[in-house]
Design brief:
Distance between the termini: 33 Å
Number of domains: 1
Helix content: 25-40%
Order of helices and strands: HEHHEHEEHEHEHH
Bound molecules: zinc ion
Structural class: alpha/beta
Protein backbone atom coordinates (compact mmCIF):
# COMPACT_ATOMS: atom_id res chain seq x y z
CA UNK A 1 0.00 0.00 0.00
CA UNK A 2 1.36 3.39 -0.94
CA UNK A 3 1.84 6.00 1.73
CA UNK A 4 -0.80 8.23 0.15
CA UNK A 5 -3.36 5.43 0.17
CA UNK A 6 -2.41 4.52 3.72
CA UNK A 7 -2.89 8.15 4.72
CA UNK A 8 -6.42 8.12 3.37
CA UNK A 9 -7.37 4.92 5.17
CA UNK A 10 -6.02 6.18 8.47
CA UNK A 11 -7.78 9.52 8.31
CA UNK A 12 -9.66 10.81 11.36
CA UNK A 13 -13.38 10.97 10.43
CA UNK A 14 -13.84 14.22 12.35
CA UNK A 15 -10.93 16.51 11.42
CA UNK A 16 -10.06 14.41 8.34
CA UNK A 17 -6.34 14.62 8.97
CA UNK A 18 -4.26 11.43 9.23
CA UNK A 19 -4.86 9.92 12.68
CA UNK A 20 -1.21 10.38 13.56
CA UNK A 21 -1.65 14.17 13.26
CA UNK A 22 -5.33 14.31 14.37
CA UNK A 23 -6.09 17.77 15.71
CA UNK A 24 -9.41 17.00 17.43
CA UNK A 25 -8.00 17.39 20.95
CA UNK A 26 -7.34 21.04 20.04
CA UNK A 27 -10.98 21.71 19.13
CA UNK A 28 -12.09 23.76 22.13
CA UNK A 29 -15.56 25.20 21.75
CA UNK A 30 -16.62 28.66 22.90
CA UNK A 31 -19.64 30.95 22.74
CA UNK A 32 -20.33 34.32 21.19
CA UNK A 33 -23.42 36.58 20.97
CA UNK A 34 -23.80 36.52 17.19
CA UNK A 35 -24.81 33.78 14.80
CA UNK A 36 -22.60 32.71 11.91
CA UNK A 37 -24.35 31.24 8.86
CA UNK A 38 -22.00 29.58 6.39
CA UNK A 39 -23.28 28.85 2.90
CA UNK A 40 -21.18 26.01 1.54
CA UNK A 41 -21.39 24.22 -1.80
CA UNK A 42 -21.83 20.47 -1.42
CA UNK A 43 -18.69 19.76 -3.49
CA UNK A 44 -16.60 22.07 -1.28
CA UNK A 45 -17.78 20.37 1.87
CA UNK A 46 -16.25 17.08 0.74
CA UNK A 47 -12.77 18.57 0.49
CA UNK A 48 -10.46 17.94 3.42
CA UNK A 49 -9.09 21.45 2.91
CA UNK A 50 -12.51 23.07 3.42
CA UNK A 51 -12.23 25.38 6.40
CA UNK A 52 -15.92 26.21 7.02
CA UNK A 53 -16.46 22.91 8.85
CA UNK A 54 -14.10 24.03 11.62
CA UNK A 55 -16.03 27.22 12.31
CA UNK A 56 -19.01 25.00 13.10
CA UNK A 57 -16.92 22.70 15.28
CA UNK A 58 -15.53 25.54 17.41
CA UNK A 59 -18.81 27.45 17.63
CA UNK A 60 -21.37 24.62 17.78
CA UNK A 61 -24.16 26.79 19.24
CA UNK A 62 -23.76 29.82 16.96
CA UNK A 63 -22.27 28.62 13.69
CA UNK A 64 -24.31 26.63 11.21
CA UNK A 65 -23.52 25.33 7.73
CA UNK A 66 -26.20 25.62 5.06
CA UNK A 67 -25.48 23.40 2.06
CA UNK A 68 -26.18 24.49 -1.51
CA UNK A 69 -25.72 22.67 -4.81
CA UNK A 70 -27.41 19.40 -3.82
CA UNK A 71 -29.15 17.69 -6.72
CA UNK A 72 -32.56 17.02 -5.16
CA UNK A 73 -32.51 19.51 -2.32
CA UNK A 74 -32.68 23.10 -3.51
CA UNK A 75 -30.96 25.68 -1.33
CA UNK A 76 -33.40 27.99 0.39
CA UNK A 77 -32.31 31.30 1.95
CA UNK A 78 -35.26 31.36 4.41
CA UNK A 79 -33.67 29.29 7.20
CA UNK A 80 -30.56 31.48 6.94
CA UNK A 81 -32.61 34.67 7.21
CA UNK A 82 -34.77 33.27 10.01
CA UNK A 83 -31.82 33.16 12.41
CA UNK A 84 -31.63 35.85 15.08
CA UNK A 85 -29.29 38.81 14.90
CA UNK A 86 -28.77 41.73 12.54
CA UNK A 87 -28.12 40.11 9.15
CA UNK A 88 -24.86 41.00 7.41
CA UNK A 89 -23.60 39.45 4.18
CA UNK A 90 -19.82 39.14 4.15
CA UNK A 91 -18.93 39.92 0.57
CA UNK A 92 -16.85 42.78 -0.84
CA UNK A 93 -18.88 44.51 -3.55
CA UNK A 94 -19.22 48.16 -4.56
CA UNK A 95 -21.74 48.84 -1.76
CA UNK A 96 -20.09 46.90 1.06
CA UNK A 97 -19.39 48.67 4.34
CA UNK A 98 -16.08 48.11 6.06
CA UNK A 99 -16.25 46.34 9.41
CA UNK A 100 -14.69 48.64 12.00
CA UNK A 101 -15.51 50.57 15.20
CA UNK A 102 -17.68 53.09 13.37
CA UNK A 103 -19.69 50.29 11.84
CA UNK A 104 -20.35 48.71 15.27
CA UNK A 105 -21.40 52.07 16.69
CA UNK A 106 -23.84 52.67 13.83
CA UNK A 107 -25.12 49.10 13.55
CA UNK A 108 -24.92 47.41 16.95
CA UNK A 109 -25.09 43.62 17.30
CA UNK A 110 -25.66 40.85 17.92
CA UNK A 111 -25.44 39.86 14.27
CA UNK A 112 -26.31 37.07 11.91
CA UNK A 113 -23.10 36.98 9.88
CA UNK A 114 -23.85 35.28 6.57
CA UNK A 115 -20.71 33.99 4.89
CA UNK A 116 -20.62 32.49 1.39
CA UNK A 117 -17.86 29.87 1.28
CA UNK A 118 -15.57 29.19 -1.66
CA UNK A 119 -13.81 31.37 -4.18
CA UNK A 120 -14.82 34.81 -5.43
CA UNK A 121 -17.03 33.51 -8.26
CA UNK A 122 -18.86 31.01 -6.07
CA UNK A 123 -19.56 33.67 -3.46
CA UNK A 124 -20.78 36.05 -6.14
CA UNK A 125 -23.15 33.39 -7.47
CA UNK A 126 -24.76 32.93 -4.06
CA UNK A 127 -25.58 36.63 -3.87
CA UNK A 128 -26.76 36.80 -7.48
CA UNK A 129 -28.99 33.74 -7.37
CA UNK A 130 -30.77 34.53 -4.14
CA UNK A 131 -32.69 37.77 -4.46
CA UNK A 132 -33.78 37.47 -0.82
CA UNK A 133 -30.23 38.42 0.15
CA UNK A 134 -30.53 41.71 -1.77
CA UNK A 135 -31.91 43.68 1.17
CA UNK A 136 -29.10 42.65 3.49
CA UNK A 137 -26.14 45.03 3.74
CA UNK A 138 -22.89 43.61 2.43
CA UNK A 139 -19.83 44.05 4.62
CA UNK A 140 -16.12 43.61 4.02
CA UNK A 141 -13.02 43.12 6.10
CA UNK A 142 -10.62 46.04 6.52
CA UNK A 143 -8.02 46.21 3.76
CA UNK A 144 -4.56 44.83 4.36
CA UNK A 145 -5.36 41.44 5.83
CA UNK A 146 -3.12 38.72 4.50
CA UNK A 147 -4.26 35.15 4.70
CA UNK A 148 -2.15 32.51 6.40
CA UNK A 149 -3.82 29.70 4.50
CA UNK A 150 -1.10 27.70 2.81
CA UNK A 151 -3.01 24.65 1.68
CA UNK A 152 -4.63 25.97 -1.45
CA UNK A 153 -3.28 28.51 -3.83
CA UNK A 154 -4.88 31.86 -3.07
CA UNK A 155 -7.05 32.98 -6.00
CA UNK A 156 -6.23 36.66 -5.40
CA UNK A 157 -3.64 38.63 -3.45
CA UNK A 158 -4.76 39.24 0.12
CA UNK A 159 -7.24 36.38 -0.18
CA UNK A 160 -8.20 34.80 3.12
CA UNK A 161 -9.92 31.46 3.66
CA UNK A 162 -13.53 31.36 4.83
CA UNK A 163 -12.36 30.39 8.30
CA UNK A 164 -9.94 33.30 8.57
CA UNK A 165 -12.57 35.70 7.18
CA UNK A 166 -14.96 34.62 9.95
CA UNK A 167 -12.22 34.91 12.58
CA UNK A 168 -11.28 38.45 11.49
CA UNK A 169 -14.92 39.53 11.19
CA UNK A 170 -15.74 38.23 14.67
CA UNK A 171 -12.63 39.96 15.98
CA UNK A 172 -14.40 43.21 15.07
CA UNK A 173 -18.06 42.29 15.62
CA UNK A 174 -17.55 40.31 18.86
CA UNK A 175 -14.14 40.52 20.51
CA UNK A 176 -10.43 40.16 19.82
CA UNK A 177 -10.57 37.12 22.10
CA UNK A 178 -12.91 35.37 19.64
CA UNK A 179 -10.50 36.03 16.79
CA UNK A 180 -7.51 34.84 18.81
CA UNK A 181 -9.31 31.65 19.87
CA UNK A 182 -10.24 30.83 16.26
CA UNK A 183 -6.82 31.72 14.84
CA UNK A 184 -4.92 29.71 17.49
CA UNK A 185 -6.74 26.58 16.31
CA UNK A 186 -6.35 27.53 12.65
CA UNK A 187 -2.56 27.73 12.89
CA UNK A 188 -2.42 24.30 14.51
CA UNK A 189 -4.71 22.86 11.85
CA UNK A 190 -2.64 24.29 8.97
CA UNK A 191 0.52 22.98 10.60
CA UNK A 192 -0.91 19.50 11.19
CA UNK A 193 -2.31 19.31 7.65
CA UNK A 194 0.99 20.32 6.08
CA UNK A 195 2.80 17.75 8.22
CA UNK A 196 0.35 15.02 7.22
CA UNK A 197 0.67 15.96 3.54
CA UNK A 198 4.45 15.96 3.67
CA UNK A 199 4.21 12.29 4.63
CA UNK A 200 6.92 12.81 7.23
CA UNK A 201 5.75 10.61 10.06
CA UNK A 202 9.13 10.60 11.75
CA UNK A 203 8.27 13.77 13.65
CA UNK A 204 6.78 13.29 17.05
CA UNK A 205 3.12 14.25 17.22
CA UNK A 206 3.73 16.35 20.35
CA UNK A 207 5.53 18.91 18.20
CA UNK A 208 2.20 20.05 16.80
CA UNK A 209 0.96 21.47 20.09
CA UNK A 210 4.07 23.45 20.83
CA UNK A 211 3.55 26.60 18.76
ZN1 LIG B 1 -9.31 14.29 14.33
Amino acid sequence: MSQRRAGHVNRCPNCRINNFFCICSELSTFEIQSNVSLIVHVSELKLTSNTAQFVEKLLPDQAQIFIRGRVNDHFSPEPVLARSGRPLFLFPDEHSLELNEDFIATYPGPYNLIVPDGNWNQAKQVKKRESKFDDIPTVKLPAGLVGEYKLRRAPRPNWVSTYEAVAYALGILESKKSEDHLMAFFRKWVHATLQARSGDFSLKKELISQD
